[in-house]
Amino acid sequence: DAKTTQPNSMESNEEEPVHLPCNHSTISGTDYIHWYRQLPSQGPEYVIHGLTSNVNNRMASLAIAEDRKSSTLILHRATLRDAAVYYCILIDYGGSQGNLIFGKGTKLSVKP
Amino acid sequence: DSGVTQTPKHLITATGQRVTLRCSPRSGDLSVYWYQQSLDQGLQFLIQYYNGEERAKGNILERFSAQQFPDLHSELNLSSLELGDSALYFCASSARTGITGELFFGEGSRLTVL
User: Fold this and answer.
1) What is the share, in percent, of chain B residues with pLDDT greater than 70?
2) Does residue B99 sit at the A interface (CB-CB below 8 Å)?
3) What is the pLDDT of residues B40-56, one digit of tens each?
4) Are A100 and B99 in contact (CB under 8 A)?
């Protein structure tokens, strides 16, 4: 699976939008972009995923660059509960057994 | 609640000992994954089982082994424990068929080796 690059940490204020970037310049055409987050003392949880088009769900939005070499996870109004480590992961469904390879992720801090 | 159950939640043992961690996947999920998370290594994929058979292997030490039983629960066995094995061990399960990239993680088993 192709490599991703994320900032080590970011800070946000509560109730403000947060844009978490991810670079994946070596992404292949069949790689899906997945985001997971890990709250303190919990297991990772799925947030959102996409292939080419922007995606929205109840937790977040995923904006994918036209050339797919980068993507941004958008939390529209950060809450204290959103403080977590966010992981951007690429998965080739056809070439994978389904296991996720986690990088170091971005640690998001949310200030009241 | 992800639907994945891991026991025990906490375990303290001594070097050289052997422990078994247990995982019950979401109802009907055929794939089970084991991950280790230590402070310096982050989340490391150990091993995956699908319907009782080993499907993929990651950075799993020879002292560690796993299996998935006919009822689909899985056990991770850690032997000859060393101080460096202290970590959080997560189990995850995934969709009943195919690959979707969506794994459901349990709350983890925290192992402390003294």
Assistant:
1) 96
2) yes
3) 778 999 999 999 999 99
4) no
